[in-house]
Amino acid sequence: MIKRGQTGVISIILIVLIVLILFIIVWNLFYNIVKKSADKTNTYPFTTFLEVDSIGLHFNGEAEVLLHTISGGETDVSKLKFQMHYTDGTSNTMILENGNKQMETKIFSITPNFIETSKKLSKVSVYPIFEDGVVGMESNRKIPRDGLLNPDDLVFWHRMEQINLPSTLIDTTGNFPGQIFEANQVPGKNNNGMSFDGVNDYVRLADSNQIIQYNNNFSIFAFFKANQIPSDGPIPTNNRIITFHRPSLPSVAGTAISFLFGDTDKAIIRYYDGACQPKYFSASNIEANKWYFIGLTYDGENYRSYLDLAKVVREDTFCGVGDFDAFIGAYSVNSAVINGIIDEVMVFNRSLNDNEVIAIYNNLK
Prior knowledge:
365 residues, alpha+beta, Immunoglobulin-like, 2 domains, 24 strands
């Protein structure tokens, strides 16, 4: 019995030793693989782990990154290495100081100086850097579809994503929902867009002067795709992408600002000057079934029109807006309805600068 007991103990010891030896062998293999990888990237994996909770993009091109610690190890993180990855496969890196060297949960702002705003950001990687210069393991997060943050000066943003049935189009800011008449949700520039048939489809918004409250400071943007490019003659008036109406008799229509297309191959921005006379910006050679970005900013002295990123600047005055409803996809009820698709319609209560316009274009294109 004693011999059997001793044999059993010896067997157990041998099994434990074998398991321990196997563990050491596997650990050494794993360690060497990780060490080689770490040496290549100048990182040390066995320290504090960080997690990127969220990434938000501002319209001025700034990125806001929320980080927190998810494991122990070294806690004195003196710096953070941020690596910005773009959809074209390129990347760039910046180092930020970490004030009190503790992590837990923190928000870091990456200014547009360190982001290539001419490119579309796809992912952000973060590495902790410790006091001895050792770099910890990477944490990363892709830029979410709805990663753009709503700033205070965004008046409305119709992404054409959410509809409260049967007929309310949701504004992401909550300020100005639209009433849908016949228009249909279809694949858009980003996820969903709104399709208009050129006959009786439109989205009706609030009074024009409720949306554009500052006649000397505003920015308007949209993406559109024409199903066909008609010939309207010398002064195109149909195929309205968005329309705001000017002061007139109470509740009477009259264009103040409108985006449209026609005249064979032109994208057109129409506005009325201080004498309430029509003026135009136009860009030729647009094609059917192709997405375009169109925009207009005004700072009280200068208009800046955009088709994609081609810009035209003009010094001029503005007639102003009145209390007639604004429309997406039409001039007014069943009038000058667009034959095409519209997406990402937004209005700001100030004149955005070029860098902000470029950031919007690149984050949504």
